[in-house]
């Protein structure tokens, strides 16, 4: 997995049915509740945080999360759509977020997810220069758009998951609501869960 290259799923050998739950757009009011749901089940997740949301308090929460084995990556400074933007704008959005998150959680941040999945070759080059691994997804829960139909979030995940899947979720109320069911039903299908691995 070279820095700068977009990754949509992680191959697993040995027939392991490992999948990766990822949560975008935090930190926010649901962060700790989502972490609790995960930890009650012995699961670690990966979070892509927006730089401008970082505060001292979330830094403290983020440190506890990374100490516990969760992964915190970045999602630009202002949730910016990067494709078609100038090099200086993209660099600022990406680097400022990394700096903000690292400053507060005091752990290196090596995973980056472009908002809306929007990026171009320049974005990849900047990510590579910053030693960032670009994480996409192969399962889109569409949770952000399903506040009124949270049961459809479960269907979107269960119908598309496969071993190695990276599942796109958000730090939203409806996601928190269905997260226990998603985990329990995937667990019954033999899946286990991991945070994104330390890059080799
Ligand atoms: Zn986002």
UniProtKB/TrEMBL annotation:
GO molecular function term, any single one: hydrolase activity, acting on carbon-nitrogen (but not peptide) bonds
Signal peptide range: none
A GO term (biological process) for this protein?
A: carbohydrate metabolic process
UniProt xrefs under Pfam families:
Polysacc_deac_1
The record ties this protein, via InterPro entries, to:
Glyco_hydro/deAcase_b/a-brl (IPR011330), NODB_dom (IPR002509), Polysacc_deacetylase_ArnD (IPR050248)
Source organism's superkingdom? Bacteria
Q: Which residues form the NodB homology domain?
A: 17-194
The molecule here is called NodB homology domain-containing protein
The organism's lineage is:
Bacteria, Bacillati, Bacillota, Bacilli, Bacillales
